[in-house]
Specification:
- By secondary structure, the chain is of the alpha/beta class.
- It folds into 2 domains: 251 residues, Alpha-Beta Barrel (TIM Barrel); 76 residues, Arc Repressor Mutant, subunit A (Orthogonal Bundle).
- The protein is 40% helix and 24% strand.
- The protein contains 16 helices and 17 strands.
- A 9-stranded mixed sheet has the order 9-10-8-7-6-5-4-1-11, with helices on both faces. The protein has a 3-stranded antiparallel sheet with strand order 12-13-14, with no helix packed on it.
- The longest helix is centred in the middle third of the chain and has 17 residues.
- The structure holds iron/sulfur cluster.
- Iron/sulfur cluster (SF4) binds next to loops.
């Protein structure tokens, strides 16, 4: 049996920078797209793993759907020449509403992409404009309809909560509008105010006011309750899916499975090495090498815990033991006792997982589990 790996490809081009964004994404660099595809395919040629096959592909960004169809075609067919793909591999592509076209979607279909993820964020025009998004909600609806007409069935919609001036009523309306599009998957991300963004400047200056902690928690609970009522299962802190539609690519990352990352700012993890490509587009195009770090035994064990506890099923003791040669209890010893006693983590069917209370204070649980 072939070894299974994940493959992530970063497409860093965007129409304009959103107010909250600190991802490696660049507006006005369309003239670099061809050279970028060349560089990614060159990198792909150097990163193939003998005997391994791609179980999941994730094309993220940036805005992959900004690439003209012929460039996306060249990228996807080039990847298939460099890597073996498992039959039935999950292949996702992020899309921005308002940028997809039937031609682009048919290129994705032809190259085996079978899952789309739309960054929709909120249904209110005032929130979309505050976020600096380039689309309207009508364009979200049009894009999803276009995707269905092209034959896509597995569709994620990203939403955001905790936005300046966002109310519970806004959140309820956004959820209802999103559910009306019949997605198979919904991601509900709490806003993080990143340093150096317009969002930070506006919040710091007092021009924009964030909802208080209780309101944000209420929005999160509203997402959970609403999605449960509609048959979704929560499999990670921010991710909900209909049964059978959890994103395998992300779940594999949280299970600490190996993956190759291609493109500027992309990270990869193979064996006991993690690498990160240069975050700057020009540096990447100039061939600046990735930074590599060797993961120690202790770091590897902590990574398993940090990533695994994000999932609602938690960390499988059997999988942990198979990966690290010791059980969770042997690795973390009495550091488990306090959060267990406080009801922040619990054992269930051979998995160590966060309780609902623990989900709200995940970081402090992780601090307890770190080496003294
Ligand atoms: S579309 Fe995404 S990657 Fe591009 S600027 Fe907006 S948040 Fe950043």
């Amino acid at each position: 049996m072939k070894k299974e790996i994940g493959l992530y490809v970063h497409i860093p081009f965007c129409a304009r920078k959103c107010a909250y964004c600190d991802f490696a994404s660049f507006a006005g660099r369309e003239e670099d797209e061809d050279a970028y595809i060349d560089a990614v395919l060159r990198e792909a040629g150097t990163r193939s793993v003998p005997g391994a096959a791609v179980a999941t592909l994730y094309i993220g960004g940036g805005t992959p759907s900004l690439l003209p169809p012929e460039r996306m075609d060249r990228l996807l067919s080039g990847l298939r020449e460099c890597f073996a793909f498992l039959p039935g591999a999950e292949c996702s592509c992020e899309c921005n509403p308002g940028t997809v076209t039937p031609g682009f979607l048919s290129v994705l279909q032809r190259n085996g992409v079978n899952r789309l993820s739309f960054g929709a964020q909120a249904s209110q025009p005032r929130l979309l404009s505050l976020l600096g998004r380039i689309h309207t909600w009508a364009q979200v609806q049009e894009s999803v309809a276009m995707a269905r007409a092209a034959g896509f069935r597995n569709i994620n919609i990203d939403l955001m909560l905790g936005l300046p001036s966002q109310t519970i009523a806004d959140m309820r309306e956004t959820l209802s509008e999103a559910l009306a599009l019949s997605p198979t998957h919904l991601s509900c991300y709490g806003l993080i105010v990143e340093e150096g963004t317009k969002m930070q400047r506006m919040v710091d200056s007092g021009a924009w006011t964030l909802p208080d902690e209780d309101t944000e928690r209420e929005m999160y609970e509203l997402c959970r309750e609403t999605l449960f009522r509609h048959g979704f299962e929560q499999y990670e802190i921010s991710n909900f899916a209909l049964p059978g539609y959890a994103c395998r690519h992300n779940a594999d990352c949280w299970k600490r499975k190996e993956y190759i990352g291609l493109g500027c700012a992309a990270c990869g993890f193979l064996g006991n090495v993690r690498y990160q490509n240069p975050p700057g587009l020009s540096d990447y195009l100039a061939g600046k090498p990735a930074e590599e770090s060797v993961i120690s035994r202790e770091e590897a064990r902590f990574e398993s815990m940090m990533l695994g506890l994000r999932m609602t099923e938690g960390v499988s003791d059997a999988a942990f033991t198979a990966m690290h040669g010791v059980s969770v209890r042997e690795a973390f010893g009495n550091r488990l006792d306090k959060p267990l006693r406080q009801g922040l983590i619990e054992w269930a069917d051979g998995f160590l997982r966060l309780t609902r209370k623990g989900m709200d204070v995940q970081n402090s649980v992780l601090v307890e589990l770190m080496d003294e």
